[in-house]
Amino acid sequence: MQNHRRHTDAQLDSQRATCEGTRIDLAAFLALSSEARAARWRQWSAADKADVVIQQLTRLGYAWDAALVETQIAKYDAKYAIGPIDQAVEGALERLAQEHSAAARLAVASGDKAHATEERRQTTAYTNALIQYRAGVRPELLASGAWLLPSRRPGEAPHIVRMDGDWTCACCAGASMHWPIALVIGLEVAQDAMQAHDDGAPESELAAALERTNEVLERMRLRDRICAARGRYAA
Predict the structure, then answer these.
(1) Higher-confidence position of 198 and 36
(2) What is the mean pLDDT of residues 16-24?
(3) Phi, psi of 16 (to 5 degrees)
(4) Which of 20, 38, 113, 173 has a beta carbon 3.0–4.6 Å from 178's, enabling a disulfide?
(5) Whether residue 90 has pLDDT greater than 80
(6) In whole angstroms, what is the distance from residue 183 CA to residue 149 CA?
(7) Which CA distances in Å does 160 have to 1, 75, 119, 199, 221?
(8) Strand residues in the chain grouped as ranges (E)
(9) Domain spans of the chain?
(10) How far apart are CA 42 and CA 82, in angstroms?
(11) pLDDT at residue 18 in the model
(12) For residue 50, what pLDDT is reported?
C-alpha cells in the first residue's frame, strides 16, 4: 500500500510540475473546430494531454489528482478517437503517396528523370495533404460543387479546387499538383471506397473507383509533361 501511495504521489507531483510549466495553450485548443481539436488531441503525447486536462480542471476549480486526470484523458481519448471517415481519407492519402513514391523509384531506375520528378511532386502533394488532414484541415463543399480549403500561409486567400476537365485550383499553382488538389482527390477516393463498401460492392467495384481516379491523375501527368516539353523547346 505504501509503495502504491508513493507511486501515486510521484505521478501527482509530476503532473503538477507539468501544469506549472505549461506548454499547451488551452484557450487556443478550445477555440479550434471540433475536427481540428480531435486531430490535435490525437497528435499529442501523454504528457501534453495531461497538461491540457490539468489546466482545464484547475480552471473549473476541481481539486484534481492523478486518478481524475487519467479518467479525463481516457474520456477524451474515446471522444476524439479517429472515426471511419478519417480512417478512410488518411488511408487513401497514405496509399496514394506510397504508390507515387514507388513510381518515382521505378522512374529513377529506368533513367526517366522527368517522370521521376513528376512522381516526386505527386508524392509530396499527397504527403502534405495527409499532414494537413491530420492537423484538422477539412475541405468544405461549396454550392457550385467546388471545394474550399484554407491557405497554410496566414493572410493568403483560401484555395478553391474544382473539376474543370481536370482538377484545378484558384491559387497561383492552378492545375499543377499540390496539396489542396491532392487532399480533394484523397477525399473522393475514400468516399468512393466507403460507398462501395456500404453497398456491399465486390472488390472489382472498389478497384474501378480507384481506376477512375487514376485516369484523372494520368491526364494531369500528361498535361504536365506537355507543358514541360513546351518549356524546353521555348527555351
Answers:
(1) 36
(2) 58
(3) -65, -40
(4) 173
(5) yes
(6) 9
(7) 61, 37, 23, 31, 21
(8) 140-141, 147-149, 159-164, 166-169
(9) 2-79, 84-234
(10) 8
(11) 47
(12) 92
